[in-house]
């Protein structure tokens, strides 16, 4: 199983980025797909999750600004991030759960003031 994340980068506060995570080698149906992030000196935290039934869950800090979506045919999950703030700066990790839990290597998002 391989998770390939893309879309990170440097953006000014107030800007937008779209992260993508494509899962390959998955042999079983995917249950949930999620995005986590880890800022320097902080613990990894859940940003957003989406189930196979398209139910979503967001961290309070990103509600109304971030949108998670998935393409089941492509085993891909997206995170549209709008109105970015400097405190959104972190490494963003993709997580996919089937019978096991799989993690991507992370993509860096840097929001400048």
Distance between the termini: 37 Å
Low-confidence spans: pLDDT under 50, at least 5 residues? none
Count every helix, treating DSSP H or I runs of 4 or more residues as helices.
0
> What is the number of strand segments?
11
Report the β-strand fraction as a percent range: over 45%
Give the class from helix and strand content and strand pairing: mainly beta
Which geometry do the CA atoms define?
globular
User: Compute the gyration radius: what is it?
Assistant: 13 Å
Mean pLDDT: 96
Oligomeric state of the chains present here: single chain
Order of helices and strands: EEEEEEEEEEE
Overall helicity: under 10%
Sheet with the most strands, sense and barrel status: 7 strands, mixed
Give a brief rundown of this model.
The protein is mostly beta strands and 113 residues long.
What does this structure look like?
- The chain is built from no helices and eleven strands.
- The termini are far apart.
- With 113 residues, it is an all-beta fold.
- 27% of the residues are buried.
Present the secondary structure layout:
Blueprint (H helix, E strand, L loop, with lengths): L1 E5 L2 E4 L4 E8 L8 E6 L6 E6 L5 E3 L7 E6 L4 E6 L8 E8 L3 E3 L3 E6 L1
Parallel strand pairs: 2-11
Antiparallel strand pairs: 1-3, 3-8, 4-5, 4-9, 5-6, 7-8, 9-10, 9-11
List keywords for this structure.
113 residues; mainly beta; 7-stranded mixed sheet; 4-stranded antiparallel sheet; 11 strands; 54% strand; globular
